[in-house]
Amino acid sequence: MNIVIENGRIIDPKNSVDRNTSLFITNGRIAALGEAPAGFAADQRIDAAGCVVCPGFIDLGARLNSIEAELAAAVAGGVTSVVVPPDADPPLDEPELADRLVHRAKEIARARVLPLGALTLGLKGERLAELAGLKKAGCVAFSQANVPVVDTEALLRAMEYAATFGFAVWLQPQDHWLSRNGIAHEGEVASRLGLAGIPVAAETVAIGTILQLVRDTGCRVHLTRISSAAGLAMLQRAKHDGLPVTCDIGVHHLLLTDNDIGYFNPHARFSPPLRTERDRQALSTAVAAGLAAICSDHTPVGADEKLLPFGEAKVGATGLEVLLPLTLKWAEAAGVALPVALARITSAPAEVLGLHSGQLAPGAAADVCVFDPEAHWQLTPESLMSRGKNSPWLGYIMNGQVKTTLVDGRIVYQAS
Amino acid sequence: MHNPQLNSNGELTHLLSIEGLPRSILTQILDTAASFMEVSARDVKKVPLLRGKSVFNLFFENSTRTRTTFEIAAKRLSADVINLDINKSSASKGETLLDTIDNLVAMHANLFVVRHASSGAPFLIAEHLQRIGRDDVHVVNAGDGRHAHPTQGLLDMYTIRHYKKDFTQLRVAIVGDILHSRVARSDIHALTTLGVPEVRAIGPETLLPKHLDKLGVHVFHDMEEGLKDCDVIIMLRLQNERMTGALLPSAGEYFRHYGLTPQKLALARPDAIVMHPGPMNRGVEIHSAVADGPQAVILPQVTFGIAVRMAVMSIVAGN
Amino acid sequence: MPLLPDSLPDAEAQCRQLADLIRPQLHRQPALIGIFSGGAWIAERLRELLGLPEEIGLIDVSFYRDDFAAKGLHPQVKPTIIPFDVEGRHLILVDDVLYTGRTTRAALNELFDYGRPASVSMAVLADRGGRELPIAPTYCVWNVALGAGQSLVLGKRDDGQLLWRLENA
User: Fold this and answer.
1) What is the ipTM score, two decimals?
2) Predicted confidence band at C6 (pLDDT cuts at 50, 70, 90)?
3) What are C35-64's pLDDT values in tens digits?
4) DSSP state of C155
5) Contact by Cβ (8 Å): A306, A266
């Protein structure tokens, strides 16, 4: 099938492309930019006038509770590849579960699913899961989701084992003991509101431990959802020292702080917690400088589990359909150019995963997002395809709307 | 941000927290409470203000004392009072907090007195009532987690005003586990709003919240230093659970450093008053000689508490 | 009902006239109870003029009004203080202006929560008509009709003298 996407502003951050031209797709792959390839006859023309045409977004963290609805939500948000944490029920610690997930995703045929396998059985942090078997079944890396490994010896052994095979380990740096009783960032807001605090030390102590184990094992580690200035400073030094570490930051943490808890708004409860404005600015600077990728940390939570007193509410917010508008919102406030912002949700995540995707080079799979950066829409429960209507942005106007999404050169989403 | 306790006319329609309330509203409550003290001194201790109204005591955390004072206060306003001990009922069967509220609103509840273990629970309820358009149903916070206990804060202020008259000349010390105390937080907000120039917090580092100075409080770890020249001393209860979790070694060590003994009391002004929200742990935070001594006003606090709660319920129910 | 004269009458003189009306009843040893705030001032004046030894009672009817549901609690409530035993006494309720009668009804309800008086009379300076309840003053020195939106308010000067003023809505 030959498709041409014309009249749009093509932005491919990885290959430094940013111009108004046409994109040609043949047999599910990018055929050319600019000039039609010889003998190209378009079966379908997509008019992208007034729109940006870019690689489909790669989301480094999205939970797919009801897989059909969430994969539909993904492509409605322009996300063509989704990395799924292993903390579904049951945890993804057996190759067969990974098989089933990958198979189901292919049947649904919307966004690509890149599962993370559990690092330990049941995510309990004690016994290793069958990493090689999980890899074979399609897992791209191994993770504990946001469940810390308490036993440092077990963590050391797990990282050694992963390093044997060259597998990457994804960890959310949060010390179990310093965070187990807390529900909000330990600071002025928590003191005033009487909320048990999670100090920054919960993140930096864990980062320190993990970095030391990286030095000793050579294991590749991706640190997820960094939340503090102090944590970022440690990671910056580690990268400078040449350690094989990467990191990502949740898009909500780029925009919100603990002040946004307001009058105990349960939609502002996240893990890791929203921290101070100083931390938020450090996160923003780090993302602008390319130190971290952005991810949505999509977590659908039903009203029954969210509309509860703050300390009882489940953590997390819906993310797949707001990843683009929130990234654009961040970029505007931070004075970051559009191609740089888009890089953080396309080429940067691809680099973390070691994949060739997240770009529009000829030969690459045609995962494409066409969006109107000026279109605005109001975030309401009805406007979302995800089952997760939980968001601190409910009622707000979102800038940036996806018009068309393609995966493997097939249209998997078309705005009405 | 719009304060959910005030209606569009700036009148108090819920009492959720002292924080964010203007001085005029706190003063109105204290003045109204003074009138209710007269009512409680009569033979017929009832006024018809809330006749025909239903007050539901929703206690998700046990407290016979607080619940009883609210019950007495509501009955003196001629309201019908229904007590719900949620431990034993539907919440433990998995009904959400808001579902419980909806059910009770359908039973024509007019006012909820809510005590809950989670900070912020009464705000969730107030917001929900607003969302379903029931601005005729009111919420009074009887204590939420460690966040606030506004009626206790108000009765503490009433007590201080009764004995000391002018807030603007006082040194007030709050001693003990402020980190976990909703009473302390409410007292601090009330004291600073009413213009008390020197509010002191005394306790070990592990029992004081970070950033207390941002609330306008002067922090002391040395009790003898902190009590010097104080006019009012508010002692907080030390709970047994604090001994686990590495916050404190023992009740004995705590008493030696932070217990109020007659010797330490002597460092304060000679006419200083000693307060305690109750129930007291004698020999842990307070020496019996002080608790039973002439400077303690702990029992009057209880009497004032009924009048203050009558004032709060009548004011919110009328708005 | 006569219309309002161009200049308002002297409230202090009216208090003296009111005292003259009450004087024949002194053998019953009446107790005076003034309704805040105008009635309280007048009751104090009557006490001086009649030479009564007893403290006057002061009554705030906020907790007994019938308009709580519509208007809420009055922002300035003062404590009711009745420094004598109501039981078996002849009481004289004192107010400045009698209008709908609702304040009087509230005051009666409140008084009866203190005990059972032998009788309750009502003394007012002005009766402006417009009654909504079957209530009549026992002692009154001035009947007057007011226009729509007008109200009579008793004030107290810095030197303690009572005087009327007219307010328009």
Assistant:
1) 0.89
2) confident
3) 998 999 999 999 999 999 999 999 999 999
4) E
5) yes
Residue C77 has what pLDDT?
A: 87
**Whole-number Å distance between alpha carbons of C104 and C130:** 14
Asked if pLDDT for residue A179 goes beyond 80, the answer is yes
Q: What whole-number distance in Å separates Cα of residue A222 and Cα of residue A238?
A: 12
CA distance A158 to A160: 5
Stretches where chain B sits below pLDDT 50 are none
Distance CA C61, CA B53 (A): 20
Q: Give the pTM.
A: 0.89
The pLDDT value recorded for residue B63 is 86
Distances in Å between the alpha carbon of A310 and those of A125, A408, B67, B116, B185? 28, 42, 24, 12, 18
Amino acid type, C162: L
Q: Known catalytic residue: A297?
A: yes
pLDDT greater than 70 at residue A287: yes
A274 CA to centre of own chain:
17
Residue pLDDT, tens place only, C13-33:
999 999 999 999 999 999 999
In chain B, the DSSP E strands lie at 54-59, 80-85, 111-116, 138-144, 171-175, 198-202, 218-220, 232-235, 273-275
Is B48 touching C (CB cutoff 8 A)? yes
Residues of C in contact with B39 (CB under 8 A): 63, 80
Determine contact: B14 vs chain A, CB below 8 A.
Answer: no
Q: What is the Cα–Cα distance from A207 to A221, expressed in whole angstroms?
A: 11
pLDDT (tens digit per residue) in A15-41? 999 999 999 999 999 999 999 999 999
C19, C23, C33, C15: which is closest to C89 by C-alpha? C33
Distance CA B146, CA B184 (A): 9
Q: What is the pLDDT of residue B1?
A: 60
Cis peptide before C37 (omega within 30 of 0): yes
Residue pair A339/A13 in contact (Cβ under 8 Å)? The answer is yes
Q: Please tell me the distance from the alpha carbon of residue A231 to that of residue A205, in angstroms, as a whole number.
A: 9
Checking DSSP bridges between strand B80-85 and strand B111-116, what pairing results, if any?
unpaired
Percent of chain C with pLDDT over 70: 100
The beta strand positions in A186-233, using DSSP E, are 197-198, 220-223
Write down the catalytic residue from A12, A175, A297, A367. A297
Check whether the bond before B279 is cis (ω within 30° of 0): yes
Q: A371-404 burial string, b = 16+ CB within 10 Å, else e?
A: bbbebeeebeeeebbbbbbbbbbbeeebbbbbbb
The answer to whether the Cβ–Cβ distance between B44 and C71 falls below 8 Å is no
